[in-house]
Amino acid sequence: MTSKQAIVVPLYKTELTEPELMSLERTLNVLAEHDLFIVGPERLQSYFVALSKQYGERLRLQLFSDHFFESIAGYNRLLVSEQFYARFTDYEYMLLVQTDALVLKDELALWCNKGYSYIGAPMFKGFTTPVRPLTLFCVGNGGFSLRNIEDFLKVLRQPRLFKNKLMEDWPGGWISITYRYLIDYWSFSYKNTQLNIDVNEDVFWGLFVPAACSFFKVPPVDEAIAFAFEAEPEHLYCLNEQRLPFGCHAWQRYDQGFWDRMLTSDQLHHLPIKIK
């Protein structure tokens, strides 16, 4: 029988900044009732053991080959690999919380009960540099994201071709269609049972997979706003009727002034975050 939720924090280095430590401790405090895992490279095992002891051995460890943590491309490969999700088959859901994300309140059960396969902060056209006028088009960013283990493994265990949804506006014509097919095949296909992608893993899970797999469900962008903010947080705050979401990602990168106001406000009276 599976448990409901596992909290997963990826770490790849031994020196955490103050905001990163704040993120980890906030996760430990707000989600204290759940199993929390550190995911990281095998070379840092002794450091992770010491870190776990520092927090009363509340942190469990899942270690993977070092090469997955040497680059963004390696991290993307890990998060589209069967071996990663197979480590968490005792759980129904994984909440992935990178150390540049913050848990703002405990709504984990609420979001798990909605039954979605994947949820992340909705992304704007333009991704990290949203274009004007602002348009939300995809759910969502992986830095603070909820993932259904069974659905992810179902995708990864059945080889299939994924269409490149980012090329939908490519001009027509048979040459273009042929070129697009080749790009789709070489960029988003299985080779020797290993999934090969050339986009960030969250774009793959949030945009390409739902289009190819009818069982894989993501919420509409207007609902995902209440799950997490990333880029343009003040705009999302207005769309969410001036309510903070479950969590946020890259809060120091996007409009830190907004987050400095919010993280010291009465909206975070439960375990308030201290800004130094």
From TrEMBL:
Domain DUF5672 per the UniProt entry, residue ranges: 59-249
Pfam families named among the record's database cross-references: DUF5672 (PF18922)
Matches recorded under InterPro entries: DUF5672
Protein name (record): DUF5672 domain-containing protein
Protein source organism: Jezberella montanilacus
Phylogenetic lineage: Bacteria, Pseudomonadati, Pseudomonadota, Betaproteobacteria, Burkholderiales
